[in-house]
């Protein structure tokens, strides 16, 4: 169950990062509220996952899901730059996440 909590927390991290961008510095109400609610939910689910998963594993995977997810959302919906180096960096992050998962018991 901890891995499901962690995955959900990572997805919510992507949502709050995107909505924070949409809030334009917390000057738009709806995206600001979405940011705060999903941020709290993400932290809460992360804390539930950390009841059984090691700190290093849980935190690394949570931030990795958020980082790669925000990268993909930025390219897909916000027209951010795509380059070979940025894609290679994302692949390295995902590789690290896979290794972290495989190394945890």
Automatic annotation (TrEMBL):
It comes from the Bacteria. It holds the Pfam family Multi_Drug_Res. Its main location: membrane. Keywords: Cell membrane, Membrane, Transmembrane, Transmembrane helix, Transport. It is found in: Cell membrane. InterPro entries: EmrE-like, Small_drug/metabolite_transptr, Small_multidrug_res. The chain crosses the membrane at residues 33-50, 57-78, 84-102. It is a multi-pass membrane protein. Belongs to the drug/metabolite transporter (DMT) superfamily. Small multidrug resistance (SMR) (TC 2.A.7.1) family. Gdx/SugE subfamily. PANTHER family: GUANIDINIUM EXPORTER, SMR FAMILY PROTON-DEPENDENT DRUG EFFLUX TRANSPORTER SUGE. This is Guanidinium exporter.
């Amino acid at each position: 169950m901890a891995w499901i909590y962690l995955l959900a927390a990572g997805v919510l991290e992507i949502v709050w990062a995107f909505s924070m961008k949409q809030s334009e510095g917390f000057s738009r109400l709806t995206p600001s509220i979405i940011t705060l609610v999903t941020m709290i939910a993400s932290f809460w689910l992360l804390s539930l996952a950390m009841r059984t998963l090691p700190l290093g594993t849980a935190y690394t995977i949570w931030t990795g899901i958020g980082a790669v997810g925000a990268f993909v959302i930025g390219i897909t919906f916000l027209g951010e730059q795509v380059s070979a180096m940025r894609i290679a960096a994302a692949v390295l992050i995902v590789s690290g996440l896979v290794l972290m998962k495989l190394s945890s018991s």
